[in-house]
Design goal:
single chain; 5 helices; 35% helix; disordered N terminus
Length: 205
């Protein structure tokens, strides 16, 4: 029971840190021209921020840099295939949301924060269990850590040996059609609210 409480506390700390980072970024931004759509479960940044996916690869071995942007909105979720709860729950909700009317053509990318165990092949099989259109990415530990920090998220390995867990942020991260960090969706989620928010960002000019 104590281990479970410690895990929840660690996750709460990670979410708090991510939220503080988001707030700091927003306070430094000057609003651009035009109104942003109001999201039901998150926020869009007034000015998107550049990202550097160099060194990361997709589940098929292609560079992540060739996937992000390219005219498409992408939802990034950080997690790992050994995750017992938040990852499968969130991916299932995203899969359901994408099947609902009005969700738009937003893509989903699962970014592993456990590169020691999550190979590209394992990740591909894992995400396509939820939706054949989902993609996943990984890379060297240092590049994963740098990219996750650039997303305003956080993660921390807990324990040693082969049975360690990874506490990680559970927000969904929005990347715009130019490959920039553009906003966040924060739990708790429902497929219906996710579909509405995904449709709202997909409809942006």
């Amino acid at each position: 029971m104590a281990s479970s409480s410690n895990s929840r506390s660690a996750r709460g700390w990670l979410v708090l840190c991510a939220c503080l980072a988001i707030a700091a970024g927003l306070s430094r931004c000057q609003p651009p021209q035009g109104a942003l759509p109001e999201l039901r479960s998150g926020v869009l940044l007034p000015r998107p921020r550049p990202l550097d996916p160099a060194g990361l690869v997709l589940d098929d071995g292609a560079p992540l840099a060739d996937f992000l942007g390219r005219g498409w909105w992408t939802v990034v979720f950080t997690g790992y295939t050994h995750c017992p709860d938040a990852c499968p729950t969130t991916l299932a909700q995203l899969a359901r949301a994408r099947s609902l009317p009005g969700a738009g053509g937003v893509r989903v990318l699962f970014l592993s924060v456990d590169p020691g165990r999550d190979t590209p092949e394992r990740l591909g099989l894992y995400v396509r269990h939820f939706d054949p259109g989902f993609r996943a990415a990984t890379g060297p530990a240092g590049r994963v850590a740098a990219f996750v920090a650039g997303l305003g998220a956080a993660f921390q390995q807990v324990g040693d040996g082969g049975n360690y867990r990874v506490d990680h942020s559970t927000a969904l991260i929005l990347v715009d059609p130019l490959g920039r960090l553009a906003g966040y969706l924060t739990p708790p989620f429902t497929p219906e609210t996710l579909a509405a928010d995904l449709g709202a960002v997909a409809a942006m000019p």
